[in-house]
Amino acid sequence: MTSSFRLMGALALAGGVACAAASAIPLLSHVTIVSAAQAEDDPVLLYRDPMGGPEVSRTPKKDGMGMDFLPVRRSAVVALNAKLPAPSRSAEAPLFWRDAMGGTEISLSPKKDSMGMDFLPVRAADLAAVLPPLNTSPEPSKKRILYYRNPMGLADVSPVPKKDAMGMDYRPVYEGEDDDSSSVHIAAGKVQRTGVRTEAATTRSIVSKIIVPGVIQLDERRITLVSTRSTTFIEKVAEVTTGDQVRKGQVLFRFYSPEIASAAAQYFSNPGFEGARKRLDVLDVPAEFIAEIDRSRKIPLSLEWRSPRDGVVFERNAYEGMRADPGQQLFKIVDMTSVWALVDVAERDYMRIKIGQKVAVQPRGMAGRSFSGVVTLVYPQINKETRTVRIRVELQNPDLLLKPDMYVDAEIAAGEGGKVVTVPDSAVIDSGAKQLVLIDRGEGRFEPRAVRTGRRGEGSVEIREGVAEGDKVVTSANFLIDAESNLKAALKGLTMGEAK
């Protein structure tokens, strides 16, 4: 069996060319064909006798039979550091120098470590004693060769042996070695240069944000209309106008009512008659008015009407000297310390809204100001024109900054709360017809895998099928790998067709 080696650059990239039926021989126990990227990361330090003899050389050379010495790379030498004996006293020039503390660093010239200790010289005799024996007669592989792939990791295959543009032999792929024809192989150096990053799929809850417009409205439960249950004549109105804030119990106006005066006279004449007291209650006479009759034993000609609650006067329809009929609205008072934001959510999203979900509301007229609220109601009908569902959000408004009919933007944190398998958004390649991710299988192997996605939120996407927790997915440069995978598949299909 013969082997030929090409010297490539200062790093002495070596590629073995095997005979027709023989497999490759590693560098320490076989010869391995490496890419340029690998050679850059792992240069050749020395060469050893191809027949397993103790002789080693710092430069390429041939033995007495004309066979090339086999290259030994840095990684192989580093693995032997722990086995190397103490430096010999031979006058032979050292091949290299190693870390005196047993570290992995190797130098081609004398140097010191960070503590000032000299690196130890390693000579040919020292190294020859620990080099593993060569397997000079490997058994030919009994596996069938499926095809040959590019030695530089490119997406190029061939059904027959061939060489690339630099004269390097294509590497055989044996039956069972590459059962997954969809995976793509990329050299380690190329993976680093293209910026490939991976991240493990995790199980977590996805909370997505729904941002929709809305408008502020009054809380219907905090609106009070002031009116009397009898015909009244307004005598005096307090200094209260529309927009003023009033307190519960504050006098709003004084009035005279013939019906109340008649009922009061009946009660005065028959204080023990329950029907007379009941008539005053039906007319909604204040308790203070009845207490004044009991105390003074007189019937007041007029009485005061007080505010039933704290709030803002939205309407004032009472004027001095006017006659008011029973039920006629005289004042409208609203408690604005709590208001509603009514927002319209798209039909496709409303099922994700749940009672009690938190909502951040930003008024458009208050840059940088946000109010926190919760969903209190999902209205039961869908607007047939806009295909939206109205959502009610309750907001606290102690400073009365939120005004009715004010436009706002609501950010609803929507989610079902359950934990699902997720990957970063950047890991999913969406072609429109299908979605896929690239699974990192280690050693430069990447497998495109179709997935079925679900909800998205906070930079993550739910994976319902195709990926399990812990699977490593490519999150950057995945489009480059996907393109190489597609090219590989196309070229392989073409060459397989030609082989038939």
Any chance you could write out the topology, listing elements then pairs?
Layout: H1 26-30, H2 36-41, E1 44-48, E2 56-57, E3 70-73, H3 74-80, E4 96-98, E5 106-107, E6 120-122, H4 124-128, E7 145-149, E8 157-158, E9 171-174, E10 184-185, H5 188-193, E11 197-200, E12 202-205, E13 208-218, E14 223-226, E15 232-237, E16 245-246, E17 251-256, H6 258-269, H7 274-282, H8 287-296, E18 303-306, E19 311-316, E20 323-324, E21 331-334, E22 338-346, E23 358-363, E24 371-383, E25 388-396, E26 407-414, E27 419-424, E28 429-430, E29 435-442, E30 445-457, E31 460-465, E32 472-476, H9 478-499
Antiparallel strand pairs: 1-2, 1-3, 4-5, 4-6, 7-8, 7-9, 10-30, 11-32, 12-27, 13-22, 13-26, 14-21, 15-17, 15-20, 16-19, 17-18, 19-21, 22-25, 23-24, 23-26, 24-25, 27-31, 28-29, 29-30, 30-31
Helix pairs in contact: 6-7
Please give a structural write-up.
It is a single chain. This protein is α+β, with helices and mostly antiparallel strands and 500 residues long. The chain has nine helices and 32 strands. Strands 10, 12, 27, 28, 29, 30 and 31 form a seven-stranded antiparallel sheet that branches. It has a six-stranded antiparallel β-barrel with strand order 13-22-25-24-23-26. It is rod-shaped and about 145 Å long.
